[in-house]
Structure formats: C-alpha cells, structure tokens
Fold:
Amino acid sequence: MCGKKCGKRSFSSKTVLCALLLGVFLYSGYSVIRIADDYRRAEQIRAEFSEFKPSQPQTADVTHITDGEVATEIEPTSSDSGIPSATEPPVNSSLLEAQKINGDILGWITVDGTMIDYPFVRSKDNADYLRTDLYGNYSVAGTVFMDYRCEGDLSSFNTILYGHKMKDSSMFSDLGLFADDAFWAEHTGGTLYLPDVTYTLEVFAYAVVQSTDMKLYAPYIEAPPEDKTELLRYIREQARQYREIEVGTDDQILLLSTCSYEYSGARSIVVAKITKAQ
Structure:
C-alpha cells in the first residue's frame, strides 16, 4: 500500500515541479520578448523625433554684381548691431514643431563622440519621465529629462539632465566612455539647443558619485558666489577625469547623470561649461 501511495505522491510532486518550471520558462521568454520590444520601440521613437533635431547655424550666400561680373560671398546672418537679418531664423523652429507633439519638450542635447543625441523634457517632478516615452506611453528607457528644480532657460548655475543607462548604449549609457583616458582626451564638447538659442558644451569633468550627493544634485539658483565656488572645487575634488578650462561663478554648467552600477547608488556624471554659440 505504501509503495502505491508514495508512487502517486512522487508523480504528483513531479507534475507540480514541471508545471512550475514551464511557467518560469514561459515567463522568462515573455520577459525577453517584452524587453526586446521595448528597446525596438525606443529606437523607433528616437528615429521619429530625429527630424526635429535643430541644424547648425547657417550662413547666407549673397550675390553681388561688380563691373559686369557676378561675385558670391558668404555673409553672416546677423548684423554687427546684433539685430537678426532677414535671412536669420529667429529660433530653432524644429523644436517648436516637436512641442506640438509633446509640450514638455524643452530642447535637444548632443555629446560629441557618443550616441547621446536626444530631445529632453522638463516636467513637474523627476518621476514623470523615468519610465515614460515622448508619446506618454510606458517605456523602460524613459526619456532624457531636466531636473524640475532647474530653470528652463538654463539660468541656474547648475543645470541637471538625467538619462538611463541602457544595455544597447542608448540614452545616457555613453557617459561612462569618459572614464577612458583616450576617449576623454579626444572628446571635449557637445551642443545644447533651446527653441530660441544654441549653446556649446565644454566638458571639463567626469566622476562617479552617490545619487544622494545633494552638493552635486542641486541647481544653485540665486546662490551666492561662495557656494558656486565651493561646488566647482568639489567637482574637481570628486573628478576621475578633469580638464583645466576657464569656468567661474559667472558661468553656467551642465551636469549629465546616469546609473553606474559600480556600487550601490552610484551615478556617472559628466560636467560641462555652457556657452552661448556665436
């Protein structure tokens, strides 16, 4: 009797175990497919919004007729008085078109030598776009976003942008490239576009820091000069890579942040000076 009962009990246990293993296998397969689809969708959105990336400032061809000959010159698109000429676009108008799709879009960020080439948003808090794409749908990759405490016109001393570290090197994953000495030496800048102005970025620091470091993760709006000086000193102290440039309390800086996974709560940051493009 015991043999039959034990046999039935053993068969039942094996059945349950097989069912559990099958469930785990099916769920794992579903998760892999879902993650792959999330990556595909994120890349698709990036491609769709690429048409809104502002172009570099252009010059206008001006044709003169002198002594019966045609001469073509390249003339600046603004006058010496600072008043835009008729040929100068008043804004990065493509961003205004992007804002018709998502009103939270504030600008566009590129970092030379990396895949960082994205529109960025600013919302009422720092949670809205952690797992939300530019269309407002759930997304593992989320969207590059500005710290809501920072001024949208970049007038904060320390403007902060966040982006996820993705396995396909998208979003802000490439910030980690600046840890390499050769990459650091060869790549020094980037560009930041707002609808009404273009800025150049001069990278001067790379560090791995704690996500809770409130000395770094603060906008310093209307901060006294001594606080700004201390922040610049602290950045240099924390930096694993540092480049000597002219940056002071009358300037503005940009801090780009992503996950590091080097230790619990670690973040990779790249810091750049913001200068209005000529």
